[in-house]
Amino acid sequence: MSAAGRKEEISDRLAENAASVELALATMKRRLSERHSISGLHTREPLLDLMTTERAGMIGAIEIADFDRLAGFNPDLAEYVLTTIVRRIVRMLPPGRFVAHVDRAQFAIWYGQDIAHDAARGEIDALIYALGSVITAGTQDIVPIISARCAALEEGGSPHTFLAQTLASFAMLRDGGAGNVDLTPAAIAREEFRYGIEQDLRGAVGRGEFELLFQPLIDATWQCVTGAEALIRWNHPERGAVSPSVFIPVVEAAGLADEVGLWVLNGAAREASQWAGIGPGPLRVAVNISANQLHSAKFTEFLARMFHNHGLEPGALEIELTESVASANDARVARMFEEIRALGVNISIDDFGTGYSSFSTLRQLGFDKIKIDREFVTEVQRRPDSQAICRSILTLGQGLGIKVLAEGVETAEEYHWLLGEGCRHFQGFYFSRPLAAADFLTFVRDTSRLADILRIAPAGREPERLTA
Ligand code: C2E
Ligand code: MG
Ligand code: MG
Question: What is the pTM of this model?
C-alpha cells in the first residue's frame, strides 16, 4: 500500500473510533439523565453503568419494607410516603452522592471506593434513623418501616448479579419465604385494619394508652385469693378499648412483642411488689408471655434485672405460656423453661386443651400449673364431651402433681361441677372480672364476700369434701 493509502486508512480508523467513543459517551449521558418518573432520582441502568465503570466499591441499599402492604389498600397514601422518603434521602445526602431509585420502594446509594466502609455504614445508619420517623398525612401518622443493607462489590464481580442479590435479601426477610397474597376485598379490608392497628401501636406505650387489669385467682381449699392474672388493656383514643385478642397478634407480627411485653412485666412487678402482707398468704402475679418474648435471648436476664429493680421475689411471679407455645417440640423452649424455673419463677400452661400437645412432650418440660381453657369450662355441667376433657386434665394434674386451674368460670353451676370433680383453683367472672389494681386489693381484703361466693353449693357438693 502506498503511503497516501496508509494515511487514508489510519484517518478512517481514527474517525471510526471517534464515532464509537462519541456514541458510547452519548449513551452514557442519556442513561445518566434517565430519571425515575415518581422520584426524579436516577434509575437502575445508570447505577449499573457506573458500577461497571468503577468495577468495585460499596453500595448502600434502602427499602420501605411495608410499602407494598400500604399500596395494597391506599395507593395515594403510599405514594405520599414514598415521595416524603425520597425528599428526606435527598436532603440528608451530601451533594454529588449517587442515589438511584432501583425498584418500587427500593433505593441504592453508590459509594464506590472513595468513601471508607465505616463512613458509608454510618451514613446509612443515620438514614435509617431519619427515614423511619413519623410522616403525617392529614390526620394520619405513618411510621414507615425502613430496612437497609451495606454490601461491597468485589473487583471482577458482576454488577447486575451483585445488585440483584443485595435487593433480594430484602424480599427474603420481608416475606419469610411465603409468596401467596390473598387479594379478596375482605382480605384487603382486614389488612387495612391490621395496618392501622399496627401504626397506632407504635408509640402507644409512650403515649400511656395501655393499662393493666388484675383478675383474681381463687383457691377454693383455703377460700382465698392467691394472686391475679395481669391482663393488658389498650385504651385507644378513637377506637376505645381494644381487646388484647385483637391487638396482641398484631404486636407479635409487627415485632413489638418485646416493647409491649416488657411494659406489662414491669407494670405487673411494680404492682405485685406492693402486695406483701395484704392476702392471708403471699400473692402472686401471673403474666402472659408471648412466643417471641420467650425466644428472646435476653428474656431471663431481663427477668433477673426486673426482680432486682422492683425488689420482688421471683416466686411472686408466674408466667403463662399458651399450650401451643409450650408444646412446640423445640430444644430452645425446654432450655428456657429450665432457665426460668432456675430463677424461681413459676410457669403455667395457659388455654390447656386447645393446642393438641402430646402429654409426653409436656412431661419433658417442668411447669407448675395447667389452666383449663374456658372452652371446656363453659356449661361443663351439661356437656359430656367437656366433662370428659375436664376430668382427664384433672387426672393428669393429679398424676403429675401439678395444680389445675379452671379459667372462664361464669356460673355457680360450672363452679360446683368442677369442685365436685376435685378442681381447687379457679378464675372467672363468677368470682370477679379483671379489676383495676386498687379494686383488686379491695377484693382480696373482702374475705367475707369471697366466702359467700364460694359457699353457695348445692347438696352433695359441699366444700367439706375438699382436701388440701
Ligand atoms: P388468657 O390469658 O386466657 O386470659 C383470660 C381471658 O379470659 C381474659 O381476656 C379474661 O378477661 C377472660 N376471662 C376471664 N374470665 C372470664 C369469664 O368468666 N368469661 C369470659 N367470657 N372471659 C373471661 P382478655 O383480657 O380479653 O385477654 C385475652 C387474651 O389476650 C388472654 O387470654 C391472653 O392470651 C392475651 N393477653 C392478655 N394480656 C396479655 C399480655 O399482657 N401479654 C400477652 N402476650 N397476651 C395477653
Ligand atoms: Mg393467661
Ligand atoms: Mg387462658
Answer: 0.73
